[in-house]
Amino acid sequence: MAGLQRVPADYVASFPVAEFSLHEQRKIADFLDVQVGATGSLIATRERQIRLIQERWDAVLDSAMSPLGAPKMPVRHLLREVAVGIVIQPAALYVTTGGVRALRGVDVRPWSIGDESEMVQISRAGHAANPRSTLRDNDVVIVRTGLAGAAARVPSSLVGSNSIDVVIARPAARLHPDYLVYFLNSRSGRDGVTGQASGSIQKHFGVEHLKRLTIAIRTRVEQESLIADLEIARVGHGAAVAALTSSIRLLEERKQALITAAVTGQFDVATARKVSMT
């Protein structure tokens, strides 16, 4: 079948394997059952901790962005403009060098933009012909298809670049861009997007969907204060998840190294068992 690779039979037949008696094989298998099982339990615990940390962050963010009883208003009343990135045959504008970077939905993550060096480029003529989709300072870009509703503020490094198939929100003076980003990435924001986005298989989020969302009313000063607090919490959350993710990776590496060492006879499992039990 196309896309499938087969391991040559002679490669498997000639692959070197350490010789162990049946008794030794059973000892190795018993040792690995215990050690791999214990490592697997630790990995499962780390994964459960990540889920709990994510749930706690979601709860904190949702409580901050959608407090009970707070007055709300449609997002459209807080925007100067809503635009959409290039949607009509954007691939026809692609160039490999000498063009203008164009941000796509796949480049957008909640709160951040992916590797800018990996972005596509469009011709300078194509860029000039699409001024409304050119990214500006304080713009918020929102994914239309796939991870619909994921939002990030445009960094200064991308101001003047173009965009493809994303929603571009341009906040009015009384709406802080980061306040909109935090709302859209909150559980309430995501639920609003999911409830309004169309498409049975893949969700599509559009301009009208954004305008209909309602957001808690706060003064600009209140927004800035809340953003500062949430940023501290988000950084702490990210650091905790990163530490646990790193721990999982190290445990996976240890598990694989242990299996390799045991089946290739790099240590005596009987001795290793005694050491591990003390």
TrEMBL record:
InterPro entries cross-referenced by the UniProt entry: Restrct_endonuc_typeI_TRD_sf, Type-I_RS_S_subunit
UniProt keyword terms in alphabetical order: DNA-binding, Restriction system
SUPFAM superfamilies assigned: DNA methylase specificity domain
Domain of life of the organism encoding this protein: Bacteria
Alphabetized Gene3D superfamilies for the sequence: Bipartite methylase S protein, DNA methylase specificity domains
PANTHER family noted in UniProt: TYPE I RESTRICTION ENZYME MJAVIII SPECIFICITY SUBUNIT, TYPE-1 RESTRICTION ENZYME ECOKI SPECIFICITY PROTEIN
UniProt-recorded name of the protein: Type I restriction modification DNA specificity domain-containing protein
Lineage: Bacteria, Bacillati, Actinomycetota, Actinomycetes, Kineosporiales
